[in-house]
């Protein structure tokens, strides 16, 4: 148990403070940088900072899931999704750097909060753990769709990253669903939505 905690603590430190890496090519790697106005660049940067912060949370949620999952098959089935979240972290991090910005200073706070939520959901059992993952992925995919509406039209690089992430998140939701997620009660969905609005509003700016 102590070994597991040390490994997980190390993962947490790396999520928040180190650079992530990606096995798949970054979706924007062959896409040219557009000449954005300063306002467009700052808006794209704010959105990518939100996305990066969301991916920090995803790391924590999947970590919480892995810590608490009772069924080893469930844990294994979610490894691929968890790895793809690490890739999203790498993609958004690079995009933030390309746009000349920095990651949100709130990342450690959101990380700890998400880990606590992931562990709490896990304590209720695998079906609720999976329900929490599924609803998170559904909401993230929807919010990435919103970003595709509001990102500068010419910012094809950010768009390529967000579009691939949206497709991945939709698949992750399906995975959690197919593994036997419980139907999430509407008030919990609303609470999760409100929490994500808070994340968006805060990490867009800082
Ligand atoms: Fe993700
Ligand atoms: Fe995901």
UniProtKB/TrEMBL annotation:
**Record has Iron as a keyword:** yes
UniProt subcellular location: Cell membrane
The record describes its membrane topology as: Peripheral membrane protein
Q: Note how many cofactor molecules are bound and how.
A: Binds 2 iron ions per subunit.
Q: Name one GO molecular function term.
A: metal ion binding
Annotated Fe cation 1 binding sites: 55, 85, 88, 169
Q: Pathway, per Swiss-Prot/TrEMBL?
A: Cofactor biosynthesis; ubiquinone biosynthesis
Q: Provide the E.C. number(s) assigned to this enzyme.
A: 1.14.99.60
Residues bound to Fe cation 2: 85, 137, 169, 172
Quote any Pfam family the record assigns: COQ7
Its GO biological process annotations read: ubiquinone biosynthetic process
Q: Which NCBIfam families match?
A: DMQ_monoox_COQ7
Q: What does this protein do?
A: Catalyzes the hydroxylation of 2-nonaprenyl-3-methyl-6-methoxy-1,4-benzoquinol during ubiquinone biosynthesis.
Q: Which family does it belong to?
A: Belongs to the COQ7 family.
Q: What is this protein called?
A: 3-demethoxyubiquinol 3-hydroxylase
């Amino acid at each position: 148990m102590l070994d597991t905690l040390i490994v997980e603590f190390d993962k947490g430190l790396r999520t928040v403070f180190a650079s992530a890496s990606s096995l798949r090519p970054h979706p924007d790697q062959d896409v040219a940088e557009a000449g954005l106005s300063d306002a467009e660049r700052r808006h794209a940067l704010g959105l990518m900072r939100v996305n990066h912060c969301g991916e920090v949370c995803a790391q924590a949620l999947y970590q919480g899931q892995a810590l608490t999952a009772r069924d080893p098959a469930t844990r294994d089935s979610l490894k691929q999704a968890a790895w793809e979240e690490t890739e999203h972290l790498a993609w958004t991090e690079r995009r933030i750097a390309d746009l000349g910005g920095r990651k949100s200073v709130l990342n450690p706070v959101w990380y700890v909060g998400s880990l606590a939520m992931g562990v709490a959901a896990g304590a209720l059992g695998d079906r609720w753990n999976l329900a929490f993952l599924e609803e998170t992925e559904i909401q993230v995919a929807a919010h990435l769709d919103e970003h595709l509406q509001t990102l500068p039209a010419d910012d094809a690089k950010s768009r390529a990253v967000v579009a691939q992430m949206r497709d991945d998140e939709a698949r992750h939701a399906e995975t959690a669903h197919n593994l036997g997620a419980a139907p999430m009660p509407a008030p919990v969905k609303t609470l999760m939505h409100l929490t994500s609005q808070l994340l968006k509003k805060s990490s867009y700016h800082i």
